[in-house]
Design goal:
heterodimer; A: alpha/beta; Aconitase, domain 3; 2 domains; five-stranded parallel sheet; 16 helices; 19 strands; globular; B: Aconitase, domain 4; seven-stranded mixed sheet
Chain lengths: ~475, ~200
């Protein structure tokens, strides 16, 4: 059993008590809600005559359903409009802070909470969205929950949970040019498997993560859930503190010093005990692309699609299913495969750093003929910053569309969808069957820079071949 | 809240590892403010791809209430819409090699046991149910056993969860809300609650 890790310290501090079931009643420091998984929870509260216990510890925004082209109200989709109104009503009724479209602070929930300084080290954070693991980048224990649990947090600010084991996932060394945080996490999931993390929290440690900025760390923790780990975290350090300082909800003045001191104290001890440790060498990680229908079906861009006999027996059936669905042949290279749609955005890769990096590769190039390529900033603040830096001009001149913030085609609950069997090069987090809105649509996950490489060549390409002349 | 000591009825096999929640209920069906009506949409895209071939469409499995799956069932999104859709179709218990955690937790909160069994057991159950959809099947949480025709095998469920289901205390909300004093005590020792000036607007 783990001991002395950040996970243990934060878990113990937030423990309210033990429940008769043997589960822990855990206090949730910050609860984030959005329009998709909360309306039924508010309805359950009403049915049971319950109130929101700590209304000022819940913050709302709208992201999944918002159109990224025409955001005029009422939304063209009457179901989306109904959900929007339900959230507006619930927030008003329960006195919950709501960052609505046009507020200047709306965006994907996992982009805006860090941006506002709401996400801080040492917190427990819950949200009715599996990518809540993102917030672990700050040294918070953050996980996705279902709607009944959203109800529980609203009513009690606590959850009934079983404690997780802790696996230290250590990556050491410097990443090669053209290799990004996205490649690191795709490589980890490819190696440990999509269910390798079930029952674990992942502590991402080692010099590679220490060298990453906060946005890169968020990309890594975001996809912990794709490896089966309900939460992933990185110990807070100077990089974390510098990111937080001055943000809207970050501690100020004398409280800042106290905060830094406490945040430092909750780091995993040097002699902490882990339930498991795995070690990777950063120099061995290449630009990585998924070829199949789970985020664990990834290969280096210059590898071939694996043959079934080279895979563990348990993974062979889903590989066979993936060849058929993706229309890819084992033993053949993925590089050179024609793509139809290129998407840059999502809670994985829709932050300003992602757009800056993508723009470096888009500058002076042009989207290949017949390709639909679009960039969706993760939040209104990201959009504003990108426009102040002229990134939107670079994208527009290169033939990309420049959109309004939202979840967009990561999960296609809004007008952004694949059509038919289109193949998408996507900076998002899931390549499940039908994920991007067409029941036969196909998704290749990759870094934003790799998406640009695919867009300008019209096919899956190695971003390292576009590196010359680009300042890293 | 009802006690869940055993679930009996007829089984439905669904073969495959890593069946994710996007497949269980595609995102477009999440555009709703209630869970009503999700039952008809469960596995909508998988069913549309193979008309009439999906177990949830096959006549012999209509009315089944125990779903038998393989590994990592329910991975992906946290959407409770997934177990809600399965439950509204008629499923009351799930047997599998392993379950994704958020999916498992959502099922507990709905009073649906997700019990695990070794791969040989789930495969055997799937084979038996494919051969005879009418074969009676029972999952007993008290005996931690599955019985399907003449075949029986042990199943596993975390003890605390098993007790919650058997005693009818699987809906944690009431227990959590009852601890308001302890909740406030815990809150009072969290340094960040006073630093973060996030007061109700």
């Amino acid at each position: 059993m783990s001991k002395g890790t950040l996970f243990d310290k934060v878990w113990d501090l937030h423990t309210v008590g033990m429940l008769p079931s043997g589960q822990t009643q855990l206090f949730i420091g910050l609860h984030l809600i959005h329009e998709v998984t909360s309306p039924q929870a508010f309805a359950m509260l009403r049915e049971r005559g319950l109130k929101v216990l700590f209304p000022h510890r819940t913050v709302a925004t709208v992201d999944h359903i918002v159109p990224t082209e025409n955001q005029a109200r009422p939304f063209a989709d009457s179901l989306a409009e109904e959900m929007m109104q339900a959230l507006e009503r619930s927030c008003q009724e329960h006195n919950i802070t709501f960052y609505n479209v046009g507020s200047g602070s709306q965006g994907i929930v996992h982009v805006i909470a860090p941006e506002q300084g709401l996400t801080q080290p040492g917190m427990t954070i819950a949200c009715g969205d599996s990518h809540t693991s993102t917030h672990g980048a700050f040294g918070a224990i953050a996980f996705g929950i279902g709607t009944s649990q959203v109800r529980d947090v609203l009513a009690s600010q606590t959850l009934a949970l079983s404690k997780l084991k802790v696996r230290k996932v250590e990556v050491n060394g410097t990443l090669n040019p053209g290799v990004y945080a996205k490649d690191v996490i795709l490589h980890i999931i490819r190696t440990l498997g999509v269910k390798g993390g079930v029952g674990y929290a992942y502590e991402f440690a080692g010099s590679t993560f220490e060298q990453m900025n906060m946005e890169e760390r968020m990309t890594v923790c975001n996809m912990a859930i794709e490896g089966g780990a309900r939460c992933g975290y990185i110990n807070p350090d100077k990089v974390t503190f510098e990111y937080l300082q001055g943000r809207e909800f970050a501690p100020k003045e004398s409280e800042w010093e106290q905060a830094v001191s406490w945040w430092t104290s909750i780091r995993s001890e040097a002699d902490a005990i882990y339930d498991d440790v795995v070690v990777f060498d950063a120099s061995q990680i290449a630009p990585t692309v998924t070829w199949g229908i789970t985020p664990g079906q990834g290969i280096a861009v210059d590898e071939v699609v694996p043959a079934p006999e080279n895979l563990p027996e348990a993974e062979q059936p889903i590989a066979v299913e993936a060849y058929r669905y993706m229309d890819l042949a084992p033993g053949k290279p993925l590089q050179g495969t024609k793509v139809d749609v290129c998407f840059i955005g999502s809670c994985t890769n829709g932050r300003i750093g992602d757009l800056r990096e993508a723009a470096k590769f888009a500058k002076g190039r042009h989207v290949a003929e017949g390709i639909k390529a679009f960039v969706v900033p993760g939040s209104e603040q990201v959009k504003k910053q990108a426009e102040a830096e002229g990134l939107h001009q670079i994208f527009l001149e290169a033939g990309f569309e420049w959109r309004e913030p939202g979840c967009s085609m990561c999960l296609a609950m809004n007008p952004d969808k694949l059509e038919g069997r289109q193949l998408s090069a996507s900076s998002s987090n899931r390549n499940f069957k039908g994920r991007q809105g067409s029941s036969s649509g196909r998704t290749l996950l990759m870094s934003p820079a790799m998406v640009v490489a695919a867009a300008v060549t019209g096919e899956v390409s190695d971003v390292r071949e576009l590196l010359s002349g680009i300042q890293q | 809240m009802s006690q869940v000591k055993a679930v009996s009825g007829r089984g439905i096999p669904l073969v495959g590892n890593d069946i994710d929640t996007d497949r269980i209920i595609p995102a477009r069906f999440l555009r709703c403010v209630t869970f009503d009506g999700l039952g008809a949409q469960v596995f909508a895209d998988d069913r549309a791809q193979a008309p009439g071939q999906h177990p949830f469409d096959q006549p012999q499995y209509q009315g089944a209430n125990i779903l038998v799956v393989n590994g990592n069932f329910g991975c992906g999104s946290s959407r409770e819409h997934a177990p809600q859709a399965i439950a509204k179709w008629g499923i009351q218990a799930i047997i599998g090699e392993s379950f994704a955690e958020i999916f498992f937790g959502n099922c507990v909160a709905m009073g649906i046991p997700c019990v695990t069994a070794d791969p040989a057991t789930t495969k055997r159950l799937q084979t038996l149910l494919a051969a005879d959809a009418q074969m009676p099947i029972q999952v007993s949480l008290e005996a931690l056993q599955v019985q399907c025709g003449d075949f029986s095998a042990p199943v596993f469920l975390v003890e605390g969860i098993r007790q919650m289901l058997i005693s009818g205390t699987w809906d944690a909300c009431g227990q959590l809300v009852a601890q308001t004093n302890q909740i406030r005590t815990t809150a009072s020792r969290l340094p960040y609650l006073s630093w973060e000036h996030l007061t109700a607007s």
